[in-house]
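Problem 12. The chain below contains 315 residues. Write out its predicted structure in token notation.
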Amino acid sequence: MYNNSSDMVVVSVLMPTYNHENFIAESIKSFLRQEVKFDIELLIGDDCSTDQTSSIALSFAEQYPSKIHYFHYNENRGLMQNYKYLLEHAKGKYIAILESDDVWLDCLKLQKQVDIFEKNKNVGLVCSNWYVIDEKSKKIEESKVPLSNNYSELLKANFMAAVTVLFSRQLFNKYCNIDDYIKFKFKTFDYPVWLSISAHSDIIYLTDYTAGYRCLSTSISNSNDIRKSQEFNESIDEITSYIIEKYGSGDLSLKELQNAKRWRYMIQYLFHGHLYAAFKEAISFKVIDRKTFFIKYFSLVWFFRNRQFWRKRIR
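Solution.
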């Protein structure tokens, strides 16, 4: 069980940040609202912000010196180096990610997740449902529990939002190599971590909506620039290849892996309105029931063409 002594940090929360003056205060406050029976810490790594992010973060660190640790770098490190530095200073048994434009909506999020860890020996990751929120923190979409939550399913697509996840530091140290992530220039920290840990442990997915993931066009995974979006998808290809070489393909066949890749690129083209390119990806799918597939495909076409309409309706 977790130790309640004052010198034992149970959860370390990592917050890499860069130019998020409009959102970081809300993110930090959502950390401070956590109701837990153990010690937690927030580590903020400011990667040379040029706006007011630094002063906002520093003011919170000065107000809560026992809970919030603020680091300001002299030169830009990049996201992965930022994560590495924060991990080197994290003391917790478990690690959570709270990027500075996201928020936690459930004040019991960390307590629920730690309780699950302490009752289940084989668990390496605990995640949950989440809301997609806009720049004004209004809910515009919501996640759904995946049909299955394991290593094989993760290889097909990342169904976990980083803001919802708590993971084992012990398993991270054993199976994850952030120096490799830096060496191969992976564009995301969370996905190789989820894959590496889930290849050796169980995932528990809570149906609770614990967090808000902020959807910004400046995010590389949600960029309006198709070139950046393409680069992100190519990085996902590199990550999955790296992980499969180390830990295998789980229960997936080569055909299933290829279809998962084609589906990801098809979604990318649909998102950017490149319907012909999306259709070319669609017809290359290796499926038996093409009728069912194309019904699903054209439903997606309709959704992406009307997503702004539905977002307005949700607002």
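Discussion. The first strand starts at residue 9 and ends at 17. Students who got a different answer should revisit the alignment rule from Section 12.3.
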